[in-house]
Amino acid sequence: MLTTCTTEKLDVPCTGSAHVPSELFDGLGARQAAISPKFLYDALGSKLFEAICELPEYYPTRTEAGIFERHGREIAHACGIGSTLIDLGAGNCAKAAALFPLLRPAQYVAVDISTEFVSEALARLRLRFPHIDMQALGLDFSSGLELPESVRAERRLFFYPGSSLGNFTPPEARVFLTRLRRGCGPDGALLIGIDLAKDKAILDAAYDDALGVTAAFNLNVLRHVNRLLGSDFDIRNWRHVGLYNEAAGRVEMHLEAKRFQSVRWPGGGRDFAAGERIHTENSYKYRQADAIGLLEQSGFEATRVWTDPRCPFAVIHAQA
Ligand code: AVI
What we know:
One of its GO terms (molecular function) is L-histidine N(alpha)-methyltransferase activity. This protein is an alpha/beta fold.
């Protein structure tokens, strides 16, 4: 089920209380316990992710920003000006805002699961760019992409930076991209940033930083789950694990129980043995050819690719 809400009217999470707990119950009850990575992004989680992007170990944000800086004009040429810029997972809107002077969008639509966070960012952005028509959408676009009529249908340019595609499994990514391609309409396109496979040591450090910000980001999901589910996870009983699984081609984040514990929630609960893990995120790292293959299997035509010579990362423009 898809829940769409315009943030201006909202002061509650828009994730529809009817389906959120059942998804969480299923994940926590599974043999390999799991929590969907979307639950990492409550208001604090979004702020912690913002801090991760500043860390020296977390290269994707810096690398991608460098590509936008070095190739901005070519990127704008490929995308054209005056588009309907739809920013998926907009967060603090900083990445899209940096492109406004080049892309000069006719409309900017900031989509994020964390409504509170994105609407605050948009309020600040409206002051800087009063001539751009802007709207915020609180939307869990991982499960559907029904845009309201207020979003212009012409010249849609979906913007999906930061390698968020890596948080889907490849089959899920294909389903998601196919849905995006349909949402583009006949004259739409996609501008996407995809992280590429690299040295295990670099990846391990990026997802388990020395300051412990990624650990806090991961552990915070349990506080969010406690609020959503009424459970009694004690974050002091868990430790963060983030490492590259080379065979699977992905970084995995887990929470590992430090000791045996019983966790309760209304109507149920679960015992966790010491060392047992809850899987909280995958972050797939593609080879460039595989990333392009994925786009093409989803009906897109990759027209331009920009990379960084020192750190494998690709920004791709793909026509619908
Ligand atoms: C949002 N997403 C692309 C980030 C990533 O790199 O997979 C989330 C993240 N998880 C840990 N650090 C950052």
